Amino acid sequence: MTKSASDLTTLTIAEAHEGLTKKSFSATDLAKSYLAAMEKGRKLNAYVLETPEKALAMAAASDARIAKGEIGPLEGIPIGVKDLFCTKGTRTTACSNILGNFVPPYESTVTSNLWRDGAVMLGKLNNDEFAMGSSNETSCFPGPINPWRRDGDNKALVPGGSSGGSSAAVAAMLCAGATATDTGGSIRQPAALTGTVGIKPTYGRVSRWGIVAFASSLDQAGPIARDVKDAAMLLRSFAGPDAKDTTCVDRPVPDYVAAVGKSVRDMTIGIPKEYRIEGMPPEIQKLWDDGARILKEAGANIVEISLPHTKYALPAYYIVAPAEASSNLARYDGVRYGLREPGKDIVDLYEKTRAKGFGKEVKRRIMIGTYVLSAGYYDAYYVRAQKLRTLIKQDFEQAYASGVDAILTPSTPSAAFGIGEKGSADPVEMYLQDVFTVTVNMAGLPGIAVPAGLDPQGLPLGLQLIGRAFDEETLFSLASVIETEKGRFPVTERWWG
Ligand code: GLN
User: Fold this and answer.
1) pLDDT beyond 80 at 5
2) HSE (CB half, 13 Å, CA atoms) of 215?
3) Which of 85, 133, 207, 484 has its CB 3.0 to 4.6 Å from that of 108, i.e. a possible disulfide?
């Protein structure tokens, strides 16, 4: 490999790992290239905290291991960490003022696994406050900007959310790969809006320990990466049993990388008719048809299926997720950590701290959640939403029982949109971004978003593949078929420096 220091950031994780193993360059060279790219890319607001000293110290330790021939599966690979993952000794805010300058005394399991495998931390990435949002505009920091722009137009676009710092940083090559989380779509939607690959694993596949909780029965961590193989390499490190999270399942982690490029001949792919929503833009329908054609040409059988409760998924999600959030966020009271606003008594302190610390969208969720859980409304809202959740899950179970191996849908109903363009008058406009992704969280299933085309304005669009529980391997195989046909979608113009 004959890459100069300046273009080391263009290497995929797999390529960088090979270069490091062959000693074509050092982990320190690689980390320095990314640190320089991050500095140039500051106007993208992808990072909320850069940790160059830590990056260089970890890279030096990695070089020492490489010199001894101890090469981990992610040895020397520079990673950006969503600011929802606790990092020991490094500020973690969930992009909320209420956490203030919280410095965790412990490390999340996901990031511990990455460092165990040799990866290097570059810094903490922007996200929507407490991961609530689809555009990263609810962050208490200036919002990240999508490195993609519409053809012939300089308007700043959102990189999706809530993992918008992760998607922007991966697409702009400000990290080799990133951690992300997905409660209703926050890995897949930002990946789709930036031409990157994101996978939300099965609920229970990855430990949630040390990740700031939003809605605990839906939250799941996964990677955002530049291509399918890199996503597989990262998930292999993220996944695995963890005694610290009782919802994390004790089953072996398959070799996801081996699933990339595997034949999909004779697989059966379901096309759910209920996802053909009213007003779907023609380019999304075309993308979807194209995806089905590619999989068919690769030998898969394409069948139409029905997931009849799909239309209830979004409304049910906006009861279940806020209900759990209102309970999870009760811990931010100004007493134990984070922001504290003094008050005349303890109740006054709580009220002042919470009023000042939480942003508008988070307050809205807490109020909705408290309302749907309150005596008198609990049965009408929360219990009914839980029943719908069961029906949604059963729709998928029936499809899989009928012989379907995976389900193909668009990832999002639109390409990236402008900052301030959606949701200010009606929050539901923003919530609709997740219309194709929330069903998957409600059912606890794995879903991958893979870039598959450009819209008429030159912006990337993604396809989603939904799998059986714990069958991420099939998703990697199918996504790699689409990737092989369509190619990768690197940002065309590095306008930010
Ligand atoms: N956009 C959805 C929400 O705002 C999902 C967010 C997420 O997956 N974290 O709740």
Assistant:
1) no
2) 26
3) 85
Domain check: are 142 and 251 in the same one? yes
217 upstream amide cis, omega within 30 of 0: no
Residue 430 confidence (pLDDT) above 50:
yes
On whether both 135 and 17 belong to a single domain, the answer is yes
Dig out the tokens for 294 from the structure: 């590619």
Task: Tell how far the Cα of 131 is from the centroid of ligand 1, in angstroms.
Answer: 6
Pocket of ligand 1 (CB under 6 A): 131-134, 162, 182-186, 214, 321, 434
pLDDT digits (tens, 9 = 90+) for 95-118: 999 999 999 999 999 999 999 999
Residues 360 and 447 in one domain: no
Residue 375 in tokens: 């005596």
Domain identity same for 237 and 366? no
Asked whether residue 361 falls in the same domain as residue 217, the answer is: no
Three-state DSSP class for 348? helix
> What is the residue type of 32?
K
pLDDT at 1: 42
- Distance, in Å, from the CA atom of 495 to the CA atom of 267, rounded to the nearest integer, reads 42
pLDDT in tens, 156-199: 999 999 999 999 999 999 999 999 999 999 999 999 999 999 99
Q: Are residues 236 and 369 in the same domain?
A: no
Query: In this predicted structure, what is the pLDDT of residue 337?
Result: 87
Do 337 and 425 fall within a single domain? no
pTM of the model: 0.98
C-alpha of residue 8 to centroid of ligand 1, in Å: 33
Q: What is the DSSP string of 423-446?
A: SSS-HHHHHGGGTTTHHHHHHT--
Write out the catalytic residue numbers: 82, 162, 186
Q: What is the pLDDT of residues 369-386, one digit of tens each?
A: 999 999 999 999 999 999
What is the distance between the alpha carbons of residues 19 and 8, in angstroms, rounded to a whole number?
10
Give me the domain span that covers residue 320: 312-382
Distance from residue 219's CA to the centre of ligand 1 (Å): 9
The one-character DSSP state at 360 is H
Tell me the average pLDDT across 408-417: 97
pLDDT digits (tens, 9 = 90+) for 338-366: 999 999 999 999 999 999 999 999 999 99
| DSSP H helices in 339-383 | 346-357, 360-373
Q: Where are the alpha helices (DSSP H) in 379-496?
A: 384-401, 427-431, 438-443, 472-486
Q: Which atom of ligand 1 is nearest to the CA of 181?
A: 9
Q: How many domains does the chain have?
A: 2
